[in-house]
Amino acid sequence: MSLRWPVTLVAYAVAAVATSAPAAEAKPRKVAATAQVPQSPAAAEPGAEPPAEGTLPAPADVGDRPAAAPNAEEAGNPGLVPPAPTVKKSSRARRPRTRRRRPKVRKVVPKGHPDCDGRVPIYEHVVQAGEHLGLIAGRYGVRRKDLVRLNPQLGNPDLIHPGDRVRVCPEILPRVETELFYTVQPGDNLTRIAAQYDLTVEALLEFQRPPLPNPNRIRPGDRLRVVVQGPVLPAFRPFDPERAEGDRLVAGVQLPPGAHYHVKRPHLAWGTPTTVRLIQRAIDRYRRRRPGGPKIFVGDISKRGGGRIPPHVSHRAGRDVDIGYVRRGRNANNPRFTDVDGRSLDVPRTWELVKAFLETDQVRYIFMDYRVQRRLYEYARSQGVPKETLDELFQYPRGRHRAHGIIRHWPGHLDHFHVRFRR
Fold first, then answer.
1. Tens-digit pLDDT profile for residues 99-115
2. CATH number of the domain that residue 396 is part of
3. Mean pLDDT across 63-74
4. What is the pLDDT of residue 92?
């Protein structure tokens, strides 16, 4: 029940007294009335005395309220201000504001050359002095046999000359290259100069045209040629060979258990039929050449149906697989991937395993830590692998930041290597 009406009646009574007072009398004083909390008749005790004269009786019901008092200023008492009138809110509901969404613009990916399966355009490489077909293949991340297939005009692939043009479907996109000349300073040596450009001495010597007569003797004032890579050529910037692969796995097959390998997480061992077949073929070939030894530990391929698998960047379309390095010592039979070093890495067996995957002729690239690359490269060279083949396969010794070869550095691959198949 509202308590505002007793104050209104007091204002009405005071206004009436002020109106009836004689004009000669002094202006009446304002009477300060104290509002008492009214009690309902039901709450009053029987036999209670009636209210004293001059007090306001408590209302019996809300319906018995008197009519509203006139405006205070009209009653001659501007000191009392009536309550502000209430404003009824409109019953009409406000229409919610809606933002217009801009239509999504789909990025159109250009198509490459048909001879490159539409993934990238054809690029023509101009042969430089001292280059061979294996070195050119490694520069663009392809195999030597791919260049032979695309260039029937070469005749004898072992005899190429400066100025010849070689067509290539690059997996490593061509970049702007800048030729620099470093002037040897007093106290310099090839090791220090190569380190300034994140190269090895061997890679630095490859840049010299003509070759240095005696690499062990350089003098202050000698000029050394260095080639620095810049951004991707503008014509190839819209193309991304990785995106062309897609991120879904259609008609996937789960890699079954095997006698010579262990699948770490079977629910993430789904791949294309070709991928599963090539994994089994490579491991079987390795086992025939290197009998005995620990099992091969197979990591993630893809999940059923494909899609992203955190924290992997790839492994979305059933064409990628992680393979543990062959180890020796107490961790040889541990299915968990652990970092390897010179003591724990079984270099001969690991090189044989990597070579078995490469011999499938369907490997697009292999990610491997640069330190492991160096050990495998030096071992393969000691086993008589030709330099042309090493230049085709390995990024080493050109520095971990220079894209080259099928086997390339990528962070986080000191405990396993990553294989991407073509299809």
1. 666 666 555 557 789 99
2. 3.30.1380.10
3. 47
4. 61
